[in-house]
Design brief:
Layout lengths: L1 H6 L2 H9 L2 H21 L11 E3 L8 E4 L7 E5 L9 E5 L15
Antiparallel strand pairs: 1-2, 3-4
Length: 108
């Protein structure tokens, strides 16, 4: 929660703190990966400022609520199915699309 308090939008931090303690870590990770996905899709990095975008806090569906200098309604966010015990997100600017997952190669 110290990272959320330092880097997230104050409304996100308050919503995370309102979650059950058992849900806070996963909620934090979902927010972090979603923010990182949006920033990467913008061609920016974390230095842009994680507080300059605000997302719906889990268990709500991933959704960009506000983005400094852009129209948040133009952005799509989806959880990435990256494996049991992992959290990931995919973001893009534009209309909604179906996402298909597959495996390129099996591990050794």
């Amino acid at each position: 929660m110290q990272l959320a308090e330092r880097f997230f939008h104050p409304e996100e931090t308050a919503a995370l703190l309102a979650l059950d303690k058992s849900e806070q870590e996963r909620g934090f990770l979902q927010l972090w990966t979603a923010k990182e996905a949006v920033l990467k899709a913008m061609g920016r990095g974390i230095a842009f400022g994680l507080e300059r975008l605000r997302l719906a806090v889990p268990p709500a569906a991933p959704r960009l609520l506000w983005l400094d200098g852009d129209d948040a309604a133009q952005w799509q966010l989806r959880p990435a199915l990256v494996g049991e015990g992992y959290v990931g997100s995919v973001a893009w600017r534009g209309h909604a699309r179906d996402i298909r997952y597959g495996t390129l190669a099996d591990g050794p």
